[in-house]
Structures are given as structure tokens and as C-alpha cells.
Amino acid sequence: MHQDIEKVLIDEGIIQKRLDVLAGKVADDFEGKPMVVVALLKGAVLFTADLLRRVALPMQIEFLNVASYHGCTESSGVVSFLDETLPDVEGKVVLLLDDILDTGRTLEAVMKKLEQQGACEVKTCVLLAKDIEREVFKEADYTGFMIGDEFVVGYGLDYQGLYRNLPYVGVLKDSAL
Ligand code: XMP
User: Fold this and answer.
1) Residue identifier of the C-alpha nearest atom 21 of ligand 1
2) Residue 117's closest CA among 142, 85, 79?
3) Looking at the 3D structure of the chain, how many domains does it have?
4) What pTM value is reported for the model?
5) Where are the alpha helices (DSSP H) in the chain?
């Protein structure tokens, strides 16, 4: 285990097993629909690669660079779109992937943007969802794991740019914060 990690919340094997289940559901639901995956950078990168290699359907994969956390452990609530051009989703069925559903503001904002861009349907899929009351975006269509209201890193999630490459989801020691 990494020296800065206090505890492992979800280990690698459990994540990978859960991805088999999520991928099965996605494959059943999107079968026969030309699909565009829009994955949010950078947190959803590991999740996206591991999930999509299990989905044997034709798909276009796009990444969207969105900032909402700005390097601290509290959500800023402000969502900025950092790309100059957005993926072409007009008339398409979209699977939107993110690492974690926290306040819901990110998915709410991206969903709106994709709808404005003409997507005909947007389904959302997150690796993690915090078990908290949300004012916006109550629930994703597909959720890997529900977790408590604590700051987590690993498997794509970072603290100040670090820990994304850990194969598990864990909680940092106070001394690392
Ligand atoms: P919202 O609040 O918009 O947050 O649902 C979604 C984005 O905020 C980041 N986030 C976290 N990042 N550990 C992290 O490393 C966390 O516990 C955490 N909670 C939220 C993440 O970028 C997510 O896409």
C-alpha cells in the first residue's frame, strides 16, 4: 500500500469485478444504438479504459476536459469547460463517464451542455457516488460503488495531481493533506 494511504476503501479486485457487471449492463442497454462515450478528464481515465475494454459494441470515445475541484478537497461548485471544441454529439446516444458523483454539479453542467449540443439521449455512469443528499443530479444511471462522505483518491482520483495511478480507491492520511 502507498505510504500516504490511511486505508484502502475498495480494492483492485473488487473494482475489476464490479466493472464486469457495469459493462454487462451498458452493453445490454446500448446494443444496436450508435454510441458516443464522453469521459471526463482526468479522473475518469482509468475507469474509462477498464470499463470500455469490456464492452464489445461499436463506439466513439471522446474526452472532455472539465475542472470543478481546483486542487483542494472541497468542491468549488464552479464547473469550467476547458476544451476549445466540444465533441460532436448531435443526434447521438451518449454515455457520460465520470469518476465520482459528489455534489452533482459537474454531471449536471456537462449533461446540460451535451443536450445543448444536440445529444438525443445521455446516460451517466460513475465509478463512485457519495451517499449524501444532493440538490442536483440525485443519481447516475450506472453506479459502481456508493461511498460515505469522505475525500478519496486512487483509481483516477487525485489530490493535487497525485495518486491517480493507484489501482485501488483509498483515503489519505492526514499527514498527506
Ligand atoms: P461534483 O461535486 O461536481 O464533483 O459532483 C465531481 C468532481 O469533483 C471531484 N471530486 C473528488 N475528487 N476525491 C477526488 O479526488 C473525492 O473524494 C472527490 N469528490 C469529488 C472529481 O473530480 C469529480 O469529477
Assistant:
1) 100
2) 85
3) 1
4) 0.95
5) 12-30, 45-52, 105-116
**Once rounded to an integer, what is the mean pLDDT over residues 138-161?**
97
Give me the domain span that covers residue 140: 13-148
Probe target for ligand 1 pocket from 40, 79, 97, 99, with the most ligand atoms within 8 Å of CB: 99
What CATH number does the domain containing 115 carry? 3.40.50.2020
**Separation between Cα atoms, residue 65 and residue 9, nearest integer Å:** 27
pLDDT in tens, 9-33: 999 999 999 999 999 999 999 999 8
| 48 ligand 1 Cβ < 6 A | no
Whole-number Å distance between alpha carbons of 87 and 165: 26
Q: What is the residue type of 8?
A: V
Tell me if 8 is assigned to some domain: no
In a domain, 141, yes or no: yes
> Which of 69, 137, 150 has most ligand 1 atoms within 8 Å of its beta carbon, as the pocket-test mutant?
69
Our answer on whether the CB atom of 156 is closer than 6 Å to any ligand 1 atom is no
Residues noted as catalytic: 102
Within a domain: 88: yes
Q: Is residue 52 in some structural domain?
A: yes
Residue 77 Cα, ligand 1 centroid: separation in angstroms?
10
Residue 106 · residue 41 · CB < 8 Å = no
Q: Is the CB of residue 103 below 6 angstroms from any atom belonging to ligand 1?
A: yes
